[in-house]
Amino acid sequence: MKNIFDKIHKLEEVSGYSKHERLVQGFIDAIDEKLLRQGDLLPSVNSMIKETGFARETIVKGYKELIERGIVESKNRMGYFVASENTNQKLTIALILYAFDSVQETFYNAFRAALDPSVHIDIFFHNHNIDIFETIVNKVAGRYATYIIAPMPHPRIAEILQAIPLNKFLMIDRYEQIAGDFSYVVQEFEQSTYQVLMELHNTIKQFDELVFFSRPPDSDSPQEILASFKKFVADQNIKHDIKTKYIAGSIEKGKVYFSTNDTQTWMMLKDCKEQNLILGKDVGILSQDDDPIKEIICDGITTYSTDFVQMAKKAAHFVLTKEKVREVIPTALIRRKSL
User: Fold this and answer.
1) Which of 107, 187, 197, 256 could form a disulfide bond with 308, CB atoms 3.0-4.6 angstroms apart?
2) Quick one: which of 124, 61, 62, 119 has its CA closest to 88?
């Protein structure tokens, strides 16, 4: 450890360096010269105070900057460790998403584009599995400057997220209540779904039946959508059916199909083509979440969606400023040929 302190003391000869800058640069120099390697335990705050004569506040601030740059990590009750030997990175982000589908890809691309290329992003996917989610959170806690997390509805979510410092945490996409004052940029599912169905009411009434494909409660489909569907068909006396899975070849003329799963939507479109059914006339299709493919395929699929690019830009602003944000991005109906 003496070499570390020597590096810090040597920087006293460099004019213009504050104590904080000497401490940070001293560690960086030690890592660059391979005196410290990834995984090495660093001196405690008390040891640093004793060896350097710096104030506790200065030491803590220095370690905090090194953590935010992803160079150092803090392990609860164990101390500070070298997390990375890449000393050039200035800002690190842990981005935890559901899965890398087209919607998440849209968010990521806009998020990446809104940040300087020097910002380092590590991306993780929990696939709506609470055990995987917990493993990821425990792995990244204390190692990053910012945590951008898309949670899932689960009783253990609030407890798991306690490992993340709230001042560095931004909840995206789906809102889940947790203790404390935290930032979020999310979408809303229940009221927006009902509103969209009401906007489509006159068109839906031209068909014989409205069919909704509801996925299990432990899936990635928000259960609030099912609640809105049930309320809509009851309020408007709409003949309807609720299914759990679309069976290939089962498309029927005179029905509107509402799906939150893209794989099912593609199967329906294939069946329409094979049976020469005209979208918007013989069969109606409504899909959740918009992307460029749905704008083009079959002359356009009617969707309702939040603006994931706007969500990504607001997330990037949080990363750069750490300004508190609590915002629900509006959901909009996008009418196209399919309905």
Assistant:
1) 107
2) 119
Write the pLDDT tens digit of every residue in 72-92: 988 877 899 998 888 776 778
- Domain range 91-187+308-330, CATH class: alpha beta
What would the pLDDT profile of 135-193 be if each residue is shown by its tens digit?
999 988 877 878 999 999 899 999 999 988 888 899 999 999 999 999 999 999 999 99
pTM higher than 0.90: no
